[in-house]
Write a structure and sequence with these properties.
single chain, about 260 residues, Rossmann fold, 6-stranded mixed β-sheet, 10 helices
């Protein structure tokens, strides 16, 4: 479903601010894989998602999605096959638009747009049914402005918008990091349910080792723009946070305590 072939990305090359963000990175995801991505700050996690989504161009290498080379495809054209949820709950929705209007925009992504913009009753029933699965009572608030929702409710709506048309690939960029622990756990539970129900190929970046272990069928750890740990199957099921920190230190050669704290908080 997704293949990254020897991807490289350097910011501000040839200057004093040069930063090698991604270094000769290769990764293959099978259809239905739910991969959690972990690593300390500056490891290249979000940069990798930005390269996949087309938000920034690669310096070299190629990106293959479902057998198609999308390396040089503009981000707005990739939007038809990708769903993405950001860390900031404010980024994925329009605060001044109603819940049903936000959902309608997501539902019509990639379609030709004419003069008829009214939301039909068929669409409303579809939105209600979809929202009811979140168990947040939002199916009865279609006429509410998204800006009036809590951070957790808004992030849940953003998640629903990202998967409404079942993307080929779902990118989750620390999508619970800005939420309190209780709300984050709720959104993660909703995420797990949506991913499993729709068999979505998913990349979920997180700073939380516990979440990375508990969710998904595969875990990769990044350091210095490369993958240093790749675990799946029974090995992942038996993972513990202390052992994962030990793996990270051994693979990266980094034993700094701040990295361990960042990864296990």
């Amino acid at each position: 479903m997704l293949e990254l072939r020897k991807i490289c990305k350097t910011f501000n090359p040839g200057t004093v601010n040069e930063k090698v963000a991604i270094k000769n990175l290769s990764l293959t995801l099978s259809d239905g894989d739910f991969v959690t991505v972990i690593g300390s700050n500056g490891a290249g996690k979000s940069t990798m998602l930005n390269l996949i989504s087309g938000a920034i161009p690669v310096d070299s290498g190629s990106i293959i999605a479902n057998g198609k080379d999308i390396t040089h495809l503009p981000d707005y054209k990739r939007a038809a096959i990708l769903g993405r949820v950001f860390q900031d709950p404010m980024m994925g929705t329009s605060a001044n638009m109603l819940i049903e209007e936000n959902l309608a925009l997501a539902n019509r992504r990639g379609q030709k747009r004419g003069l008829k913009w009214g939301i039909t009753e068929v669409e409303r029933e579809f939105f209600k049914k979809s929202l009811s699965k979140l168990n947040l009572g939002l199916e009865n608030r279609l006429g509410t402005k998204v800006g009036l929702l809590s951070g957790g409710q808004r992030q849940a709506v953003t998640l629903l918008m990202a998967v409404l048309r079942k993307p080929e690939l779902l990118l989750l960029d620390e999508h619970t990091a800005a939420l309190d622990p209780k709300t984050a756990a709720k959104v993660l539970a909703i995420t797990e349910e949506i991913v499993q129900e729709n068999n979505l190929t998913t990349l979920m970046v997180t700073h939380n080792m516990k979440d990375a272990i508990e969710h998904g069928n595969r875990l990769i750890m990044m350091d210095g723009g490369r993958i240093v740990v790749d675990i799946s199957g029974e090995e992942k099921k038996n993972l513990t946070v202390p052992y994962l920190i030990e793996l990270f230190n051994g693979a990266s050669g980094n034993t700094e305590a701040n990295d361990a704290m960042l990864l296990s908080k």
